[in-house]
Amino acid sequence: MKRDIFVIGVGGQGIGLLSETIIRAANYAGLPVKGVDTHGLAQRGGMVTSHIRIGDGAFSPLIMPGQADMVLALEIHEALRGLSSHLKDGGILVYYNVSLQPLNVRLGRERPVTCEDITRECKRRSIKEYSVTAKVPDPRMQNMTILATLARENLIPTIDVKHYEMALEDLLSGKVLESNLALFRSLL
Amino acid sequence: MANEKAVLLGNEAIARAVVEAGCEVACAYPGTPSSEILPAIAKFADSLGTKTVVEWGTNEKVAFEVAMAASFTGKRSCVAMKHVGLNVAADPFMSGAQFDIEGGLLLIVADDPGPHSSQTEQDSRLFGLFAKVPVFDPSSAREAMEMVKDAYDLSEKHKIPVMLRPTVRVDHCRQDIEFGTPIELDRPAKFSKDVKRWVCLPAHVKITHPKLNQKIDAVRDDFTHSFSKYNYEVPAQEKAKLGIIAGGISFAVVMDLLAKMGRRDISVLKIGTPHPLPVDIVSDFINRHENVLVLEETYPVIEMQILDRTKVKGRWNGFVPRAGELVPEVVEEIIHKALGEEFSIKADEDLKKAIEELKVTPKPPMLCPGCPHRASFFAIRKAFPDGIYPSDIGCYTLGVNQKTVDTSLCMGASVTQSSGFYLAHKIDGKLRPVIATIGDSTFFHMGLPGLVNAVYNKHAFVLAILDNRITAMTGGQPHPGTGEKPRKGDAGRAIPLERVVKGCGVEFVRTVRSYDIEENVKVLQEAWEYAKDHEEPAVVIFSHPCMLLRQEQPKIPVRVNHDKCIGCKFCINFFNCPGLVFDESAKKAFIDSRFCVKCGVCLNVCPHGAIEVISEEGR
């Protein structure tokens, strides 16, 4: 079992938690795993990407452009960016179907990316697409919808629901853990 | 921590190994990508109940010297920093190499090829060569852990400080790590007086320098014969067309690429101990290959130690780019080039065009909404529109967006460069206001000597210390101004900035609230008048906690009145808040509610009074 997963977002979306949960869940499932976040000035609004490499034989934590088996994105523009930079043809795209429009789009000077654009691109490159929509009580919990999709669709074989839950229990506590777990379970 | 395995960050794995190796004194100054090491040492020391002392030093030189003296008494000690931190600690590092130390001394220097968040991409392995200090260069977090323990043993065997040089991809890699058991060293501090050993008089250096050369020869011998776990060959399965010598994370990248490319005709020599280079191993490898490529970050340190470079391609001769990180896509191209093979990246032109049209480009970094520095910079510019603004290293370097950062050289240089600017203009008899900005942690780090110098030599300028009660840029570490310490139950003492500044001999010292722009403009002008009249520096301490500390503060919702907004963009250009944006088609500014934190500071910004308070939230 080998899976190279590329996660993409901007600071504050919970990319770090999402990728660390997957890394820990893989570890609980007994899979070798490596990952690295690149976050330069993320706290000040910069881009965050995370590379996760599950399975034997990965030396470096870095995934080559165009070589990821799966791309996870928390927003539609990021989905398109991850799709173009890192996903290989025939791979899997999981993205949260919301558009945090760049300013130029908000001002009507550029056309927004729509889920039709994503679907067209995925068809052309034989990419399996999971467009996730769910009501979340707090935008910071959108990452749980991605995690629940991975679990429900068994997108990373060997990692079970319980492994994801164990990982969440490691990383969160108190009320935050409760609400995240509740959301995760409700989407399975 | 009772469990035997855990997923750790590379820096946490290194920290775990430091505690397991019996380190009793650990010091550091924060700096990306090294910052997580010291807090993790504190965490593991807490959970394992060791006596390890864990401290943030005022700067890297301080941290180095504290750790080094502990090693004089037989204790194992450790000092961690980022690559540019070693520039600050260069003095004790260079001298320290010549001492016959007693307890193992491990220097961890995290390099930042790229760079991702640094002012240089210098290679600390070269510093190891300069000081004649052995260097370990890990290619993974697990290997770094093992190297920590071997470094301590090597340090004690040869009585020499040893450097571990992880790069950002090792520091920030997460992987599952198996814990070991901490060794228990029963070593009461024992300092045996010995002038020849502990005092670096020139007469002693005549003995210690040749001895250091002997030590390095002996270490080279060890690296050649006893460290095959770090220096080994991965032979080609067929006749090799190319031999690659790779160190650090570049080795990991090469191994991934060979698998991906399905190459059986390339052999790899991994070098985990780049200084002193095990020359015999490397020469033997080169002799057996017609075509040799060296891949290392970021300087040609392995390559430069190869005596006959006739067959060698690398960074020295520019075959490998002489700057920048060796990410997989770059290395793949270099390998093909070294093999003399055609290589083109399959680019999808359609998609590339679509992406360009959509302009899904990442946002440049800015100060956070509500950041007190933004208000301080605005007041500085308003007080002195034609001033010179030397600045420093920290979040506030982003004041460059507000055109209030004219220079940034290195830690502490805001103060000293102000002296230089003052003198240059004074000679011509035409003074210009000079207003320097420096953070609280940076002021303690290296601002102090410059301030003493300015008082002593009578230099007139205004020093604005931006006190946000935290070392913000590196993730929020404490510093002498806050008084907190990393280990549980360990308390330090906070040193008030104002008293320090007065103690340096500064007569004009004012502490102001960063958000009070109008008031602060007056204080700054007063400060400059005082400085000019008395020929001495004046200090204004701008005080407001960092937004990352998330302290409660009044919420003041605002809006832009479009009847008053004339579209001059003054607020965009000189306030530069993520919450204030400009609509190019309507030629008006507006508040972006996604980012606005309702600090209310921008109320003082618009020259036309277009930014107004709204009594209730929303528009």
The gist of it:
Chain A is of the alpha/beta class and 188 residues long. Chain A has helices at residues 15-28, 76-85, 103-106, 115-124, 142-152, 161-171, 174-186, and strands at 3-10, 33-38, 47-54, 68-73, 87-96, 128-132. In chain A, 39% of the residues lie in helices and 23% in strands.
Rg of chain A, nearest Å: 16 Å
Quickly count the helices of chain B: 21
Structural domain count of chain B: 4
What share of the residues of chain B lie within helices? 25-40%
What gross morphology of chain A would you assign? globular
Largest sheet of chain A: 6 strands, mixed
Largest interface: A-B, 48 and 52 residues
What is the H-and-E element order of chain A? EHEEEHEHHEHHH
CATH topology of chain A: Pyruvate-ferredoxin Oxidoreductase, domain 3
Instruction: Say what the CATH topology of the largest domain in chain B is.
Output: Rossmann fold
Q: Per the principal axes of the C-alpha atoms, what is the gross shape of chain B?
A: globular
Q: CATH H-level name of chain A... which superfamily?
A: Pyruvate-ferredoxin oxidoreductase, PFOR, domain III
Task: Describe the oligomeric state of these chains in a short phrase.
Answer: heterodimer
Q: Count the DSSP helices of chain A.
A: 7
Radius of gyration of chain B: 27 Å
Q: What CATH architecture of the largest domain in chain B would you give?
A: 3-Layer(aba) Sandwich
Keywords (chain B): 4Fe-4S, Electron transport, Iron, Iron-sulfur, Metal-binding, Oxidoreductase, Transport
EC number (chain B): 1.2.7.8
Cofactor (chain B): [4Fe-4S] cluster
Pfam family, one (chain B): POR_N
